[in-house]
Structures are given as C-alpha cells and as structure tokens.
Amino acid sequence: MLAKTFLPRHILVSRCFSSVTSKKLKVGDTLREIRVFSSDDIKDYAEVSHDWNPLHFDPESARKAGFENRLVHGMLVSSMFPRIISTHFPGAVYLSQTLHFRSPVYIGDEILGLVQATALRETKNKYIVKFSTKCFKNHSELVVLDGEATAMLPNLEMLQQESCLTNKALP
C-alpha cells in the first residue's frame, strides 16, 4: 500500500545529508520538508491570493463550521510540494498537481511534506518526473493532503541541503 511507504516514523531512519551534495534521482527516492504555518503565513497568503475566508481568520467562524480552530489555507499547505522539488532541482518547472484534502491543518501544526519519485523519463535533454505527494500532521500517520505532481527537471542531479532522502521501499 502506497500510504505505508510514506509513514513519517520510517522516513526518520533515512540517510540524511547536512552539507550540499548531489545524487542522481531514481524512482523510489523520497524528499521531505517540515513546516509549521503561522498566523503571519495565513495573512501573507491571503494578501497574495485574496482568499479572506473567515475560516482562516476568525476562530468562532471556524468552530461554527465544525473545525477546532482557524484553518491554514489548503493551497498554502500544498505549496510545500513545489518548494521541496525546486529546492533539490533548481530550474524545475512544475507541470501538474492533483490534490486531495483529507484533514484540516491548523495554525501551529507541524506538517511533514513528502514527495516520492514514482516515474521518470528523458525527453529532449530534460526529465519528466512524476511524484507521489503527501503531507502528514504532528508526527502522526494522519494524512492531511495527498496527490501526484509532475515536474520537468533540467537534470537528475539532486541537491541535498539538510534534508533526508531514501531510495528503499519503506515498510
């Protein structure tokens, strides 16, 4: 089951790199990033997107809608995926992304974003790579967001900056 390959506790035992090195991307490689979204992030995102939905700003509106507190914009959470890819592959061009919002993300939640290469092919000296994408909440197995991304990479040389990666099938 694909979800089992993304469990955060298994990623923690992956090889980690603390300096800038490179490695060739292979199918099965997984990249990750952890982020905590703040009130300032919500405000900054709303200013750019013009999404001023009260669920993001008013705790009472959020509670009346059945949520515990103010929500982080789902699209802001999903922005972790292109960031993870472009951090490791400068010059990457994002081609597509499917998203399934599974569970709410609240301000202050720690979100683990993962992208795993599932297919790659060379075309005209560039590489088209499909990635499985997932976000987990607060060191749990709770998937808050998942989908699939496709990106065009200038090469398969991966920059690794204080991140973890694995190319093993995870239990």
Automatic annotation (TrEMBL):
One of its GO terms (cellular component) is mitochondrion. GO terms for biological process: fatty acid biosynthetic process; photorespiration; thylakoid membrane organization. The keyword Lyase applies. GO terms for molecular function: (3R)-hydroxyacyl-[acyl-carrier-protein] dehydratase activity. Pfam families: MaoC_dehydratas (PF01575). The keyword Lyase applies. Keywords: Lyase. Residues 37-126 form the MaoC-like domain. This is MaoC-like domain-containing protein. Gene3D superfamilies: Hotdog Thioesterase.
